[in-house]
Amino acid sequence: MLARYARRFLFIEFAIYGLAAAALHELGLVWPAALAVIPGFAILARCVGVGATFIVAAALSTSAERAQTAKHGRLRLVTAEILWTTLTFSVLMPFPRMFSRPDSRLPANPAILPVLLVHGYVCNSGIWTKMRRFLEKVGMPTYTHNLEPVYAGIDEYAAGLARRIEEICSRSGAARVVIIGHSMGGLAVRAYLRAQGPARVAKLITLGTPHHGTRTAPLGLGLNARQMEPSSAWLVDLARDERSLPALPVTSIYSSDDNVIVPQESSLLDGARNVRVSCIGHVSLAFSAPVRDMVLAEITAAG
């Protein structure tokens, strides 16, 4: 569903740019120059959009929370986040079937734990294209799942995750899966664990998940955004209910330079192995080579 909406948004966006180019032509600009404005507008819009997330994150952070990153590091950080955000929201998410598939291409092998990738807020499985290809290349059977409806309460995703996990276990012959959740995806998995228990899960790995909420959540739409606000009743109840669940290995990988999760230390989870990285943006966590290596090591340890 989100892919369809993303394609419509792209069409509307570029139609507006096309009208702007036609207007410039009417004002005397030759067609080649007028048409060159279209990609220029698109690039500018994406630079402004991603840049705004860093400005908002800095504005919502206290002076003690702000990461001290060198100038060249900040430039690399912002440039990479613009690149991966543009690729994700303008290509991979609108056209996920062109670049990925929901089920593993590897033959069923009960001896190898399958991996389930769960995306975050207002995303779909397209964000996992690079991570999925990497894991499949090294022999890890990898599956994806889309969380829908887009703006539902996080608990509503638990039933879909339960069905998907049972389907993966049936297809692979494995009794358990390793789950990787990006951003809100990590909270959706925790909601599933609260509802179903950890019997089918060998390990949970979260990337940039706001386990204690994020100050940027009030800017979002939907019940799930309200539930990700710091100290929300939903987060408090989730943490309380988890105390009665059997222990499950959890690793939380987060970035001290995250431009969406504020404060970044919100990703620290009691009882988990918390791993901090730096100079990596929020969307970039799903594409970063060092993060992929960490994820592979965590999966291997679970197996």
For CATH, the homologous superfamily of the largest domain is named as Alpha/Beta hydrolase fold, catalytic domain
Order of helices and strands: HHHHEHEHEHEHHEEH
What percentage of residues falls in helices of 4 or more residues? 40-55%
Oligomer: single chain
Q: Structural class per helix/strand content?
A: alpha/beta
The number of helical elements comes to: 10
Q: What topology, given as strand order, has the largest sheet?
A: 2-1-3-4-5-6
Give the CATH level 1 class of the largest domain: Alpha Beta
Number of DSSP-assigned strands: 6
Assess the beta-strand content as a share of residues: 5-15%
Q: Biggest sheet, open or closed, and with what strands and sense?
A: 6 strands, parallel
Estimated radius of gyration:
20 Å
Low-confidence stretches: none
User: What is the CA-CA span between the terminal residues?
Assistant: 34 Å
Q: How many independent structural domains?
A: 2
